Amino acid sequence: FKNTKSDLGENPKVTDERCKEEWDALPQSEKDSYGYEYETMKFLERLVQQADRKIWKNKRRCVEDDEETLRNQAENVMELEESFDPLLEQLERLGSQGEVDRALSMLSTVNVNKENRISLLKIPEHQKKIDSLPSKWKSNK
Prior knowledge:
The chain is mainly α. Helix content is 75%, strand content 0%. It contains five helices and no strands. α3 packs antiparallel against α4. 0% of the residues are buried.
């Protein structure tokens, strides 16, 4: 995979067209006795295992990052919800005292907090993708 993180560099093996033609002409039993195809198969299996391991680790890291984000969002929602009662009580008190301008200002703060809460409660697209992943990729925090 040239010019990628998986670039293995130049092939250290010698390649010669004449030798390849001779190899192709050999019967399979003689090819098997040399063991080159078996070595190649084992090398390719290791490459596939390494790539699979990298993919698994990266998917797991993404899931853990997203779970942390969701936990933070839940904490933010709880903080916003806890702030509603004191704001509403203060809003009622200001309204009953005739301080309409301050009450309207406070009402806009309450409305902003409600909008923030609603936006935090929406399930993002990436979370839907996370939910579809196998459970072994999800952390158990």
